[in-house]
Design goal:
By secondary structure, the protein is of the alpha+beta class. It folds into two domains: 3-45, Rubrerythrin, domain 2; 49-106, no CATH class. Helices cover 37% and strands 14% of the residues. The termini are far apart. The relative contact order is 0.14. The structure holds zinc ion. The site of zinc ion has 8 residues, from loops.
């Protein structure tokens, strides 16, 4: 069954829907704010994005969709963005911690 991802034009939430049958259904309402102004986006697996552009696009003041938290590449993004906004250099130790967290090693190290 194909799964489409969609993005809300109003609040930016990203959701997904399973499509049954071959017909393209109308754009679903946003699961977060109920807006009908949603648009299909390409599957995140098909999109190659640099961290710089992810950081650029990421807005910490907006609620993030469920898929955001499931994507390990977003680990540490919030802290990095905030630090950048405040002009704080988190340093190489922070970078190393984020990399560990993203690869799942952090959890293993704590056990
Ligand atoms: Zn929305």
């Amino acid at each position: 069954m194909p799964i489409f991802e969609y993005e809300c034009a109003r609040c930016g939430a990203v959701g997904s829907e399973i499509v049954i049958g071959s017909q393209r259904p109308p754009a679903p309402a946003c699961g977060q704010c109920g807006s009908r102004r949603t648009r299909r986006v390409m599957s995140t697996f098909a999109v190659v994005e640099t961290e710089a552009s992810r950081l650029q696009r990421f807005d910490p003041s907006q609620a993030q969709g469920e898929s955001f938290y499931k994507d390990s590449r977003n680990v540490g993004l919030w802290a990095k963005k905030r630090a950048r906004q405040m002009g704080v250099d988190l340093g190489p130790r922070f970078e190393a911690t984020v990399e560990k967290a993203r690869s799942g090693k952090l959890i293993k190290d704590m056990l």
